[in-house]
Amino acid sequence: MNISHEDHPDRTVVQVSGRLDTLHAKTFETYVVDIIRDTSAQIVINMAGVSYVASSGLRSLLIAAKQMRAAGRDLLLSDLQPAVKEVFDISGFSSIFRIV
């Protein structure tokens, strides 16, 4: 998995690629939580390069979303691949996140 981010005037975009699975979920969670703590901007997680999300990856996303809500912001997800979108739909996570 690869993670990077770009800061824009009104938002920070986190680019994720690879598998968001048990092996990588904690690294992803730490990365995103650090960004949430360090910026007051809107955060968008671009998941165009994510081919698979395991339950541990969903948990990491949920932790990040809760941190954002505590900060009075929403965590946005963008560009979900069809297979990943299906996991979100089946698990009910599509109703938890703002997917753009």
Automatic annotation (TrEMBL):
Pfam families: STAS. InterPro entries: Anti-sigma_ant, STAS_dom, STAS_dom_sf. CDD domains: STAS_anti-anti-sigma_factors (cd07043). It comes from the Bacteria. Residues 1-100 form the STAS domain. One of its GO terms (molecular function) is anti-sigma factor antagonist activity. Belongs to the anti-sigma-factor antagonist family. NCBIfam families: ant_ant_sig. This is Anti-sigma factor antagonist. It comes from Rhizobium loti (Mesorhizobium loti).
